[in-house]
């Protein structure tokens, strides 16, 4: 349908490898009708070399719109082919990964966040991607990497990519990446958040659109970031580990829709129908454990949650359907939790972004060299 037919991307769920797969996105859409969803990152080579098996990687239910495909890579020919192959699947935007710090990607793969050191290539890649699709394109990046972490270096990257390609939307993970062997998990924790860089980009590039990402864990924080001018806000782990209290409040608290009258029991009933229709659809894949995995955050911080997850883990050893797993384990969750409607619960800090705006670096000015 195209992005213009959907709610604006004020809230989105971050692309997370091995997490935001088709199963998670199905669950997410059962809870929120308006959040923008992202695929997990797919390497261009995976798409190109799996032409006989593309549905396994690219297919999704029509209810998942609005949905963005994220691709990664460092070969222009493969990026072009991958975009061509993905276009018939009807994604609403194509996003290019310039932020992943995983050693498999930024290290041996030489793409992801390492591409921030080569904005000329990123601009070329965005031109190639845009030439092979009819939907908008965007870039997801960090604020820097290793010693290349000044605000001016970030601006040079944004300026070069936006001025030499059709890219008008950047998703900014407000931490730099460290490529010294630390894990992706540590890269989400150790480098300090610098939201002031994000808000300075809004000031210095008024013709571009920026989504803020990193360290945001609640809907109150989403709205606080937007109150200070953020064009859009992206959540990652919080939306996966606690979908009920994050995604469940998006439609009402972010988009102003009436609070949905839905319970976790109803969500599970709908998800079970989906889950049992896809288990082992592609031979041995997906395994039932893959389909159950997104459900494990549904009762976050609720009574008996730990006991329920332990029982699910045991049931996975012998059960062959989602229905049988739920029948065997849901007795551990109190009915008052299963049947409780969504309620708005204030949480999170709301003054973080006000403080960030008081720390803005000096305005960016394009050097004569950049202009030339």
Biggest pleated sheet: 9 strands, parallel
| Unreliable parts | none
Strand content: 5-15%
Number of strands: 9
Number of helices: 19
Keywords: Flavoprotein, FMN, NADP, Nucleotide-binding, Oxidoreductase, RNA-binding, tRNA processing, tRNA-binding
Enzyme class: oxidoreductase
Domain DUS-like FMN-binding: 13-314
Protein name: tRNA-dihydrouridine synthase
Walk me through what this model shows:
It is built from 19 helices and nine strands. The protein is α/β, with parallel strands linked by helices and 372 residues long. Strands 1, 2, 3, 4, 5, 6, 7, 8 and 9 form a nine-stranded parallel β-sheet that branches. α1 runs antiparallel to α13 (264-278) and α15 crosses α16. The mean pLDDT is 93.
Task: Spell out the blueprint of helices and strands.
Blueprint: E1 11-13, H1 22-31, E2 37-38, E3 42-43, H2 44-49, H3 54-58, E4 67-72, H4 76-86, E5 93-98, H5 103-107, H6 119-131, E6 137-142, H7 151-163, E7 169-173, H8 184-187, H9 195-204, E8 209-213, H10 219-227, E9 232-235, H11 237-241, H12 243-254, H13 264-278, H14 288-292, H15 305-315, H16 322-329, H17 335-338, H18 352-357, H19 368-371
Parallel strand pairs: 1-9, 2-4, 3-4, 4-5, 5-6, 6-7, 7-8, 8-9
Helix pairs in contact: 1-13, 4-6, 6-7, 10-12, 15-16
EC number: 1.3.1.-
Keywords: Flavoprotein, FMN, NADP, Nucleotide-binding, Oxidoreductase, RNA-binding, tRNA processing, tRNA-binding
Protein name: tRNA-dihydrouridine synthase
């Amino acid at each position: 349908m195209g992005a213009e037919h959907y709610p604006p991307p004020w809230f989105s769920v971050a692309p997370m490898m091995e997490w935001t797969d088709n199963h998670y996105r199905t669950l997410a859409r059962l809870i929120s009708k308006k959040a923008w969803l992202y695929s997990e990152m797919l390497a261009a080579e995976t798409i190109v070399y799996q032409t006989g098996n593309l549905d396994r990687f690219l297919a999704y239910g029509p209810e998942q719109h609005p949905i963005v495909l994220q691709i990664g890579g460092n070969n222009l020919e493969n990026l072009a082919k991958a975009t061509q192959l993905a276009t018939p699947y009807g994604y609403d935007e194509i996003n290019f990964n310039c932020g992943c710090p995983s050693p498999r990607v930024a290290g041996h793969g030489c793409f992801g966040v390492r591409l921030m050191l080569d904005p000329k290539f990123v601009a070329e890649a965005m031109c190639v991607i845009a030439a092979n699709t009819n939907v908008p394109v965007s870039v997801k990046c960090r604020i820097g990497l290793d010693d290349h972490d000044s605000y001016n270096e970030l601006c040079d990257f944004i300026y070069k990519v936006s001025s030499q390609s059709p890219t008008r939307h950047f998703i900014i993970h407000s931490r730099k990446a460290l490529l010294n062997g630390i894990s992706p998990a540590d890269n989400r924790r150790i480098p300090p958040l610098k939201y002031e860089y994000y808000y300075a980009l809004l000031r210095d590039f008024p013709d571009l659109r920026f989504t803020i990402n990193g360290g945001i864990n609640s809907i109150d924080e989403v709205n606080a970031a937007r109150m200070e001018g953020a064009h859009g806000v992206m959540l990652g782990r919080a939306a996966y580990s606690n979908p009920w209290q994050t995604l469940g409040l998006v439609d009402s608290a972010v988009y102003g829709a009436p609070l949905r009258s839905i319970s976790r029991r109803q969500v599970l009933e709908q998800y079970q129908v989906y889950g049992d229709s896809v288990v082992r659809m592609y031979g041995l894949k997906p395994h039932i454990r893959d389909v159950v995995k997104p459900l494990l955050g549904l009762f976050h911080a609720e009574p008996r949650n730990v006991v329920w997850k332990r029982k699910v883990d045991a049931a996975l050893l012998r059960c062959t359907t989602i229905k049988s797993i739920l029948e065997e384990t849901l007795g551990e969750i109190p009915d008052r939790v299963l049947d409780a409607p969504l309620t708005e619960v204030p949480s999170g800090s709301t003054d973080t972004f006000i403080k960030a705006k008081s720390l803005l670096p000096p305005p960016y000015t394009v050097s004569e060299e950049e202009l030339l």
